[in-house]
Amino acid sequence: MEPIIIEGTPKTPTVHFDSAEGVFKLEGRSIPENSVEFYKPLVDWLDNYKESPLPKTVVEVKLEYFNTSSSKCILDVFKKLEVIHKAKNDVEIKWYYEEDDEDMLEAGEDYESIIRVPFEMIEIVE
């Protein structure tokens, strides 16, 4: 499978989805003009990936901010990961948040309560 590698901008996150590595990254800010358009290739890619996932898939989410429309799209990405996990594959989501960023911690906890995939909350201390 071809990896998806998107350089981040002030409005869109850096994306690194590579099936050869099994570690997928979403990093930066997510306030694109059209969230659905931005995230659709990721959701489609995961649809293909779920056909033959690696034994372990780790998703590292290091978002400093995302808007409401992005949050729905991120949930769609997580739902695809949940399908992979339910098929007896090892999937883990590592949710990073800044030391004083209660909002990002709560957002991660909200996703964790919705999605049946193991989450690890990781505090970034500077």
What is the topology, as strand order, of the major beta sheet? 1-2-3-4-5-6
The CATH architecture name reads: 3-Layer(aba) Sandwich
Please, what is the average pLDDT? 97
What number of structural domains do the residues give? 1
Query: What is the alpha-carbon Rg in Å?
Result: 14 Å
Structural class: alpha/beta
CATH class: Alpha Beta
Number of helices: 3
Low-pLDDT runs: none
Q: Regarding quaternary structure, how should these chains be classified? A: single chain
What proportion of the residues is helical, as a percent range?
25-40%
Question: What is the string of SSEs from the N terminus onward?
Answer: EEEHEHEHE
Gross morphology: globular
CATH topology: the name is: Rossmann fold
Distance between the termini: 36 Å
Strand content: 25-35%
How many E-type strands?
6
Major β-sheet annotation: 6 strands, mixed
Written description of the protein model:
- The protein has about 130 residues and is of the alpha/beta class.
- The protein has one domain: Rossmann fold.
- The chain is built from 3 helices and 6 strands; from the N terminus they run E-E-E-H-E-H-E-H-E.
- It has a 6-stranded mixed sheet, covered by helices on one side.
- Strand 4, helix 2 (about 70-85) and strand 5 (about 90-100) form a beta-alpha-beta unit.
- Helix 1 (about 35-50) runs parallel beside helix 2.
- The longest helix is centred in the middle third of the chain and has 19 residues, at about 70-85.
- The protein is globular and about 40 Å long.
